[in-house]
Design brief:
alpha+beta, three-stranded antiparallel sheet, single chain, two-stranded antiparallel sheet, Phosphorylase Kinase, domain 1, flat, 36% strand
């Protein structure tokens, strides 16, 4: 594992290990194009910077809570962590 300027490079030579790593990583990172995978349902919470919705996965038919953060509320001086 090497990194430069805030970037981490990971070298994995087995595709199944890479796929498993990617699946775990997706759970803890900001995801884009969420509307392609999830169907947003009812709003269950709202704060100053974000809103939480119930959403159903289109492929798995499972329900999740999804926190959305408006890009306009973020600046270069603030960090956002989505869990």
């Amino acid at each position: 594992m090497t990194g430069f300027k805030g970037t981490i490079c990971i070298y994995i030579n087995k595709i199944d290990v890479l796929f498993d790593f990617y699946q775990v990583l997706k759970k803890y990172c900001v995801q884009y194009n969420v509307s392609k995978k999830y169907l947003q349902e009812e709003e269950i919470g709202k704060g100053h910077f974000s809103t939480v919705y119930v959403a159903s996965c289109k492929t798995e038919k499972k329900r999740y809570a999804i926190k959305t953060i408006k890009k306009a509320n973020l600046t270069k001086n603030k960090e956002a962590m989505v869990m």
